[in-house]
């Protein structure tokens, strides 16, 4: 068919015009380029000048404007250029966790009037916080914590009337908290802000009474670790929404605690420790939500045990050290239902200590050092956790009662928690940049430190606390559609700022390494608090470490072109000619799509899938597979999000999705406008819906909506055999496992040849078409090139040669006669690949020729030591038989090769000989170094593909 001349003309108009209309607004592309010029370690695909079209990592566009820049944990170093001002549509800016990114924050940021989230956690920005930030009238989320900002808090920030989250903690800020002075607004005008996080600075002056009013909606007020002076304003009692209050570690804070503090009935955490507060001990009666109270080291004028001690139903932790409180401790204190820790040293508690028999099961520590307790009665079921009475009259010199022995360390309660990894014995350690995940896979985790600023508990001895947190994170991250598989936490402890710190490792799911985009996504979920921990953990922040992307794994393809038609249409308001051209071409393309049968490909297909045909024998047989609407698939893959991208195939992308039933699926979407794939697509649907076997990947359904070609398969989590052989997937395959995988694949192919109806030649057996499930059970996949054999199942068909170089049967190539023995040849190549972990054809070296030349049957292991994959390990029972079988499979003449059924029988014997694990042994996995061949292959490729008769071969995706 020919192109009509006018169409050719229109196409050329379109091509030329679209070259002028770059997809990204030039202001944005030049701004991003200028910003990145100031940085080291910019994302690897930040090249060219079209960030929106080329999907630069960390960039999100709306239309042709950049609306989001998210680059946490990239190891960016340098400064933030004032060119940021040109990104005038920017809504989200997150540059968190780049500890070498710093210098002054450009004041011109204040001109980004659309900015909603400004997140710069854990960088090294310094100098004053620009007062121009007060112009960001749409700002909702401001996190400048853990930087080196100095100077005072600009009063202009009082203009941020939409602000919800306000975090300036852990800087070097000085001066007073700005408040409304009759002209200028102040923090007291932030009536929509719920979080004031200003701890760990050098702020000073009195805490202004105006910032607490009934107009405020504050739930967290964190003013700890500063230099505030004066007293706590009585307006505190008006903050009826308050849940967490920290005034601790302000050495100059003095005066009485306002008596209306017990109006704060939602308050769960109260920290007043380490100041100079005076007057009576505050009365906390009626504060039924209160779980953590620390008022240690103040100058209260405490006399007797306060009555509220035994009235707080939620209390877990009572820290009242060095307050000179006197009297007998009520027994009821120990039986408060939630109580875990009582730190009461340095008081004047006297008389008899009675713990009783109904003490709280959670009680872990009673520290009563340096009091005046003279005797003790412990109830029926003996309290056996830590009790310290050193420095009381009861501990006379020479007493060897357990409670009279001073504990060695100041914090006797916390053995470090660490995520359990119950992997069976692992022969080799992970690669140096990898760690063993809780699910026993070697992978590169995203690491960092998690800080909880005010948890409601104090007992760190209970592992369930952290198991709960890990599980919560795993579930919520999965819901957020990022590929986080498992979470490991270790070494929680309360640091000197009274924050609960712990190390966090997030492991990727279904791969060894996060992509750059994954880190951008996951970092943002922690930096903007999208992830919310269980409420007992309270407010948190995270400081991520730089993620080490290794070049070969993490680089998303740069050349992926999105379907540009909608964008061009959007950009061509003025161009009527262009619009006509677009419509004409769209019609042209959709026509072509609907009539693929007219191409010569039709004769290649055994599936006569002609919609017009009424013959029952040619109609597609779709047993088991269902159709999906495009919208349904869009939903289950979160709009085909990058986060769900699990691979690039020859003709499109594969996404992970979760069906409403909870079933995980792999969704393979062919490149739009790719006519090439349409035949393979239909072939695969028809064929896969006929075959059902444990070693053949199963088709869940497909979608033909809206000119899309999408196949939905069962999800096979451990990637391809090829990835395992190269070490990319983190699944370690020793010899016995490899035998099992090869056996599974052989059974799959044998099923196609001998049991499928009609019998099928796969035509593309190779390691990247063998998938491994969670139990390392092999599944043959990709039926795009497959063909049925003749009616009797044993015939042969003449067909244009297709396959993949290196695996292709030379006899089939020369005769164009396709039989099952062609698959046997490819399978033999695959067997050799499995034993050597070398590509079949690499730099002109052909594995079949290499092995044939090296085999010396008089020697141990046939003298193949140099060729074998060192990661196979030492136990190689049956290897000689395996090599013999592989070499029979790659005999020149198909007639000399075994059938797949025979191959299965022989490998089954080898598996028995090798004493392999049972068929369902769990996948305990380890990674190993992918290696480069020590000896280069000799000789040339067996096929000379240059010149005329070049067969149609598949190009392997990189
Ligand atoms: C700012 O807050 C003060 C109270 O502290 C109030 O009197 C004043 O009206 C507020 N101004 C605006 C513009 O909201
Ligand atoms: C206590 O809180 C309520 C709101 O819950 C408020 O109306 C009242 O004024 C507060 N009382 C004191 C003494 O601050
Ligand atoms: C305990 O101390 C209180 C005052 O702090 C005092 O009234 C009481 O007599 C003391 N009891 C004993 C047994 O020393
Ligand atoms: C985090 O960012 C998302 C936008 O992707 C926003 O919808 C969400 O509300 C933000 N979370 C918080 C706590 O602000």
Automatic annotation (TrEMBL):
ATP binds at residue 668. It is found in: Cell membrane; Membrane. Its main location: membrane. It is a single-pass membrane protein; Single-pass type I membrane protein. One of its GO terms (cellular component) is plasma membrane. The keyword Nucleotide-binding applies. It comes from the Eukaryota. Keywords: ATP-binding, Cell membrane, Glycoprotein, Kinase, Leucine-rich repeat, Membrane, Nucleotide-binding, Receptor, Repeat, Serine/threonine-protein kinase, Signal, Transferase, Transmembrane, Transmembrane helix. Residues 1-22 form the signal peptide. The keyword Lyase does not apply. Belongs to the protein kinase superfamily. Ser/Thr protein kinase family. PANTHER family: LEUCINE-RICH REPEAT RECEPTOR PROTEIN KINASE HPCA1, RECEPTOR-LIKE PROTEIN 55. This is non-specific serine/threonine protein kinase.
